[in-house]
Design a protein that fits this description.
This protein starts with 9 loop residues before the first helix and ends in a 7-residue tail after the last helix. The chain is built from 5 helices and no strands. The protein has one domain.
Amino acid sequence: MAEETQEKTPFKQLTSFYFSNNWYSFFTITYLLFFLYSAIFFLDYVFTALKFILYTLGLSTPLLGLNSLFWGIMFVISLVIPFSVSLSAIVVFYDLWAKTKLQIKQKMILSVFIVIIIVTIIVTMDDIIRNVARQPSLNDFIEKSGLIQRI
């Protein structure tokens, strides 16, 4: 008889890692909540990027210059990156602790670096978003969507 092995889904693997009965579960749950909340917070940025794309589709794009194209691309990308980085932080931390054979000291140092790098990316992207949103080619969208108060 062939034995059936039930593979855990990636979601079950993540939840069993973050909510395990180990001494470090307090830290893993805190880490998970921090980046999960960040992802939820930045989900609004993704919706703003989608609104901008729909807004752009409604315009007469042949009348817009290349300036609008490049600032629009920069705006959309910079809106999506914080959300993506927040989600990937959850998976990267799991991969580091569950799938590598490094020593605990090395994993701790890498975990600190991961947090520092991800927070730096998020803060930098927030500054970039605000600077890009101030560009004249995006003024119309920023004003119509009510984002003028947030930048």
